[in-house]
Write a structure and sequence with these properties.
42% of the residues lie in helices and 13% in strands. It has 14 helices and nine strands. Strands 1, 5, 6, 7 and 8 form a five-stranded mixed sheet that branches. It has a two-stranded antiparallel sheet with strand order 2-9. Belongs to the Nth/MutY family.
């Protein structure tokens, strides 16, 4: 089809040189695709290089401690990706004898692997004719064909997948998939795409009908919830502090944080002192409390915004087992906590 020929020709002249494009090894492609979920290439590239250096094979990744994997992932966010990455590595080594599934259907069974990732691995590594559909692909197709179906609807997912599958180059699916993703990433960009220099501008409905800024259509998500986090940074006279491991299925699972008191609104020193006593964190011992950040830090996650304060508690000694402050960098923490640790300079 003309569309695929134009696209692949553009790709051959404009593609970026990226480390994961130098191989078709399933481990490397899988690792890069998991990292690049919810992450731009510029940010994800150094993480990919660090993972390859520390865990050069799926066997190395499988035998690693989860804490080491989470620590290396620190700063990328969406930490369930890292936990799934580690779990899948162990599954491939222990259950599949180190061999990655070689087709879309079986790849889809891996933890953390959805339609897009399975299609990418299957086409790039095994030349299977299965089209990828990600945010870049949605944008290119919706604009070129003038499609108003919301991309984050079940109808939209099916419609765009079918269209991409119809367009894919049957003889060269790997090149086509990488080309359409690259075209969306660096040319048909969300803002200010270079339409005048676009090889598709003659046939692009959005360009010719001046609808570039209207497409793709996306259903607005629910308004993010506000939460108020008060982290308690204990500092004892013998140079120790307290980190707690987050349990359960919520945000930051298995990462470490300072003891937390969550409130319904912003609180002042007097109110927090009362809450600390009510939570039995001090048990009558004397302490000094001060607010580290004068301005509330707003940390935005996909479904919630965290209004955060860091409170420093100077105490003579800790009631619970602490860690030396000079060892705090060994622990895997959310980027919100990591940024504070760097700024506080323990």
């Amino acid at each position: 089809m003309v569309f695929s020929k134009i696209l692949i020709r553009w790709y051959s002249n404009n593609k970026r040189l990226l480390p994961w494009r130098e191989t078709k090894a399933p481990y490397h492609i899988w690792l890069s695709e998991i990292i690049l979920q919810q992450t731009q290439v510029k940010q994800g590239r150094p993480y990919y290089m660090s993972f390859i250096e520390k865990f050069p094979s799926v066997f190395d990744l499988a035998k690693a401690d989860e804490s080491d994997v989470l620590k290396l992932w620190q700063g990328l966010g969406y930490y369930s990706r890292a936990r799934n990455l580690h779990a899948t590595a162990k599954h491939i080594v222990n259950e599949l004898k180190g061999e990655f599934p070689s087709n879309y259907k079986d790849l889809l069974k891996l933890k953390g692997v959805g339609d897009y990732t399975a299609s990418a691995i299957a086409s790039i590594c095994f030349n299977e004719v299965t089209a990828v559909v990600d945010g870049n692909v949605y944008r290119v197709l919706s604009r070129y064909f003038g499609i108003d179906t919301p991309i984050n609807s079940s109808k939209g997912a099916k419609e765009f997948k079918a269209l991409a599958q119809e367009l894919i180059d049957k003889k060269n699916p790997a090149e086509f998939n990488q080309a359409i993703m690259e075209f969306g990433a660096i040319h048909c960009t969300p803002q200010n795409p270079d339409c005048n220099m676009c090889p598709f501008n003659k046939g692009c409905i959005a360009f010719n009908k001046k609808r570039i800024n209207e497409l793709p259509v996306k259903i607005k998500s629910a308004k993010a919830k506000k939460k108020y986090f008060n982290f308690l940074v204990f500092i004892s006279d013998d140079g120790k502090t307290v980190l707690e491991k987050r349990e359960g299925k919520g945000i930051w699972q298995n990462l470490y944080q300072f003891p937390l008191i969550e409130t319904n609104t912003n609180v002042d020193v007097k109110t927090l002192k009362t809450l600390i006593k009510e939570h039995h964190l001090i048990n009558g011992l004397p302490f000094e409390l001060s607010l580290y950040n004068k301005d509330v830090i707003v940390h935005k996650l996909s479904h919630q915004h965290l209004y955060t304060k860091f409170w420093v508690l100077n105490v003579n000694s800790l009631l619970i087992k602490g860690i030396p402050t000079n060892e705090i960098h060994k622990y895997a923490v959310p980027i919100l906590i990591g940024n504070f640790i760097e700024a506080f300079n323990f």
